[in-house]
Design brief:
It is a single chain. This protein is an alpha/beta fold. The chain has two domains: 4-62, no CATH class; 65-219, no CATH class. It is 51% helix and 11% strand. The protein has helices at residues 4-15, 19-30, 35-44, 49-62, 65-81, 124-139, 154-160, 166-169, 174-184, 191-198, 207-210; strands at 88-91, 104-106, 109-114, 145-150, 202-206. Strands 1-2-3-4-5 form a five-stranded mixed sheet. β3, α6 and β4 (145-150) form a beta-alpha-beta unit. α1 packs across α4 (49-62). The protein starts with a helix and ends in a 16-residue tail after the last helix.
Length: 226
């Protein structure tokens, strides 16, 4: 049984500086090579079954990383954002649908946290998730402060001020789209229409200002939606 430290070392030694570069390098090295040359290469680079065993042993742990980031990120934020007289009414630290309306509700605020490392490209799934959270906060029947925490505001704001159709954004959530259509009909067609209507109701807050270490995410290539 491979322990976690050994597994991480095995994977790290295989990946080296960049997995993408490493794979490209191997593809080029093995081009036009025969079986004996492939065997020599694998032995020379110590590419063996220990690596795939390590990958399989880490897979269940890595699958929980998003939940760890979401939970710890919220917990670290609490010590920075809560007021002295503010009391937590409930927390929802698990990523995804937990049965609670928001990630955080206190006697002063309701809040959602999006630990997404925005890239600025085609990020429709991430955009869908962001709009859903903004919409649910904006429509929430409460007088408490409504807050949406994101990593960097530029890309989220570009989307929220953009012309992507709301029908497209909610295409994978037919129930929510039906609720939206029943309430607003054709009044708001694209995202910016609804955002401009509700933007003063929900504060968009940069998590990087609260947890500076999050800026390190800009150096990490990640396509996971948290």
């Amino acid at each position: 049984m491979i322990n976690i430290n050994e597994a991480v070392n095995n994977i790290s030694n295989f990946i080296r500086d960049s997995l993408t570069s490493r794979i490209s390098e191997i593809e080029n090295v093995l081009k036009n090579k025969y079986k004996s040359e492939v065997v020599n290469f694998l032995e020379g680079d110590i590419i063996n079954s220990q690596i795939i065993s390590s990958a399989f042993s880490l897979k269940p742990i890595i699958g929980q990383i998003n939940v760890v980031i979401h939970a710890v990120g919220i917990l670290l934020s609490l010590s920075k954002i809560l007021g002295e007289e503010e009391k937590i009414e409930y927390l929802s630290l698990g990523a995804g649908n937990t049965g609670r309306d928001f990630d955080l509700e206190t006697n002063f605020r309701v809040a959602e946290f999006k630990f997404i490392n925005w890239k600025g490209g085609a990020e429709s799934i991430r955009q869908n998730s962001l709009f859903k959270d903004f919409y649910l906060l904006a429509e929430s029947d409460t007088n408490k402060q409504k807050e949406l925490y994101v990593i960097g505001k530029d890309i989220p704001l570009k989307f929220l001020n953009g012309n992507r159709s709301i029908k497209s954004v909610l295409s994978r959530n037919t129930k929510l789209f039906s609720v939206f259509k029943n309430k607003y009909g054709e009044q708001y067609i694209v995202v910016k229409d609804y955002y401009n209507f509700k933007k003063d109701d929900v504060r968009l807050i940069n998590l990087s200002d609260i947890i500076p270490e999050i800026n390190q995410l800009s150096e990490i290539e990640s396509e996971e939606n948290i």
